[in-house]
Amino acid sequence: MVINKYFKVFLIIAGIFYAYTSARNAHDFEVFVDAGGKIIQGKNIYAPPFAQGLQYYYSPLFALLLAPLSGLPIIISQLLWLTVSYFLLYRIWQLVAVYFDVTQFSKKQLQLWFIISLLLSIRFILVDVGYVQMTIFMLWATLESIQLINRGRNIPGAALLALAINIKLLPLAFVFYLVYRNKLKAASFTCVFYLIYLFIPALYLGWQRNLDLVHNWFTLLNPGNKEWTVEAEDGPSSLVALIPVYLMATTGVLSFKRNFLNLPFQQVSLILNIVRLCVVLLTLAFLRTWPFKAVKSTLRQFWEMSYIFIAVPLLYPHQQQYAFVYIIPAFVYLSYYFIKNWEVVKQKMSIPLWIILFIIGVNFSPIIGRDVISSHAFEVLLYLRILPIAVLMLIPILWICRPKDELAADQ
């Protein structure tokens, strides 16, 4: 990693301080560890009471894996997890860098690429670390598994991808991506490992108890559940949280009106599902080939995966701010594109376009923080769903910045 040594020292010191301040108080990781303690005590991990009153949404296997931490003080278990998360962030940068040809980059350009990528990503990294959450791990597991599969190591790659899907469903879309890109063996192994992970807790829990927990878990995650159809409370930032609040009357934390229409729920649900379908179908535009066709260019592969990383947190319900760690690959790609093509970009860009790009980019910067813009302003942005709007605007930017030479070569 080509960065200034003083900047590197600053990042390390700031990271240690932030990890300690985050770990001092119980956060989301306490909910996961609490489930680990409950599962070895024979309790139902999906039934209250919950740590901090927060529902546990992850798998029985994940709870079992965290059970050894349940006997530790929560600050210790959270510091351990944040230490792992920091290492995974470093590994994520290593994994994404291999997709890009930077042989023509100067040292200054390499540093600029890293800094711009970090500035666009840091808001979500801070939220994930601040809540001691899982999305850094999910992003690493997805990228690492795809890298293993690209190298022909289908079994370990599939095992890791299946584990990530078992814990949280975010990477499920990449199984379909593997199928589309003719990685059928890897996709098949992933399905096999997913079934193994689903039932392997029975060796400890017993067959019937594991089945009961899996049934409770799947019932909780059912996308047809009412709570996944309209998310009016402040916090969620997916399409389920964005579209209904503008098309029907809902109640949020703030009192001013945000809906410009007042449609019946059935119509809102239909519009929401049509938009979600369009986001799914738009994947085909980014893939740009018939199914079961591999592509040669690593840059092209990363570009099309970047769209999937954007689409996933938009499509899934109940996605909080930390879930948008998943869009970091898109930031890395766009930063690379602008640096590599700077001479062409600055000729084509006008002042209004730069202003629009700046406004979109600000939404991903650390400026958008409760302690920076004030708690009230932050609540207004959440209430108006500015984050998912900004993420949606990334899609046309990613399309405009497509790797045209690599696409033409593959054609």
Shape field:
globular
Structural classification: mainly alpha
Helix content: 55-70%
Query: How many extended strands?
Result: 0
Major sheet:
none
Order of helices and strands: HHHHHHHHHHHHHHHHHHHHH
Q: Tell me what portion of residues adopts beta-strand conformation.
A: under 5%
How many DSSP helices?
21
Can you offer a commentary on this structure?
It is a single chain. With 411 residues, this protein is an all-alpha fold. It has a domain at 223-411. The model has no long low-confidence stretch (mean pLDDT 93). It has helices spanning 5-24, 28-40, 60-66, 74-97, 107-130, 135-150, 154-167, 173-180, 184-199, 202-205, 207-221, 239-247, 265-287, 298-315, 328-340, 342-348, 351-362, 370-373, 375-384, 386-400, 404-410. The chain crosses the membrane at residues 7-23, 112-143, 155-180, 186-207, 239-256, 268-287, 322-339, 351-368, 380-401. Belongs to the glycosyltransferase 87 family. It comes from Mucilaginibacter pedocola.
Give keywords:
21 helices; 68% helix; 411 residues; mainly alpha
Structure at a glance:
The protein is mainly α and 411 residues long.
Explain the layout of strands and helices:
Blueprint: H1 5-24, H2 28-40, H3 60-66, H4 74-97, H5 107-130, H6 135-150, H7 154-167, H8 173-180, H9 184-199, H10 202-205, H11 207-221, H12 239-247, H13 265-287, H14 298-315, H15 328-340, H16 342-348, H17 351-362, H18 370-373, H19 375-384, H20 386-400, H21 404-410
Helix pairs in contact: 1-4, 2-3, 4-6, 5-15, 6-7, 7-9, 8-9, 12-13, 13-14, 14-15, 14-20
Transmembrane segments: 7-23, 112-143, 155-180, 186-207, 239-256, 268-287, 322-339, 351-368, 380-401
Protein name: DUF2029 domain-containing protein
Family: Belongs to the glycosyltransferase 87 family.
